[in-house]
Design a protein that fits this description.
This protein is an all-alpha fold. It has two domains: 159 residues, no CATH class; 51 residues, no CATH class. The chain is 79% helix and 0% strand. The chain is globular and about 55 Å long. The protein starts with a helix and ends with a helix.
């Protein structure tokens, strides 16, 4: 059962593998340049596992910080995960001992995959979802370690490499658009983001847009489900 679920999950995570390797390498190089050896890089990528927050954590640790500031910054950067978790309540509720890890490992990319893919026939869905999350976590750790190793051997300019994640999101979005007949959730997400971007500007639009998206999805969820079943 587990082996079959692993084989089904592996090809689904290849796009994330590509993105996580590059961004993980960038993180590893940055951490190494700030004096953190492979042991620290491994610990951070294993137990923090929050891409953007890990980059911020490097700066915070290097410059000194107070715990209240770290808490507030973390909430601001990762507030969108509150909405991810709410939308996964039904999917995770029967996962037993795997549930805490699924909550911990719910990154942007893992969330996108869990929303956009279904297990093939005969594959246990809980193990299928678990292996998607686990594989993505492993990719991030691997990329970070490779970056840390490269950072100790060579020096090069990594400016612009973060665009890999933007490209990855675009690919995942297009894949979901092609697989789903009902495009109303995607349209709600796009329009809500544009409206909040205009109103709140680029620096502050993420949290309001997530609130607006979640509100609209809750309002229209019955209609969306009915259209999806037809």
């Amino acid at each position: 059962m587990r082996k079959k679920a692993f084989k089904a999950a592996l090809p689904m995570t290849i796009p994330v593998l590509t993105g996580y390797l590059f961004i993980g390498i960038a993180f590893g190089i940055l951490a190494n340049s700030n004096g953190y050896h492979l042991g620290w890089i491994l610990l951070m990528s294993t137990f923090i596992f929050a891409g953007s927050m890990q980059f911020v954590a490097i700066s915070l640790l290097a410059s000194g910080f107070n715990i209240l500031s770290v808490i507030l910054i973390t909430i601001m950067i990762n507030a969108r995960h509150l909405f991810y978790g709410l939308s996964m309540l039904d999917r995770f509720k029967n996962m037993g001992k795997k549930k805490p890890y699924m909550i911990f490992s719910l990154t942007d990319e893992t969330f996108s995959l869990l929303c956009g893919v279904d297990p093939p026939g005969g594959v246990n869905k809980d193990w299928f979802y678990f292996y998607i999350a686990l594989l993505n976590h492993i990719y991030w750790i691997l990329g970070s370690l490779v970056g840390g190793l490269l950072g100790s051997l060579i020096t090069f300019n990594t400016q612009g490499i973060e665009f890999v994640m933007t490209a990855l999101f675009v690919v995942i979005f297009l894949d979901q658009w092609e697989k789903n007949k009902d495009h109303s959730p995607a349209i709600i997400g796009i329009l809500s983001s544009i409206i909040c971007l205009i109103i709140f500007r680029a620096e502050n639009f993420i949290l309001p847009s997530m609130i607006l998206i979640m509100t609209l999805l809750l309002i229209f969820k019955t209609t969306i489900r009915l259209e999806d079943e037809q």
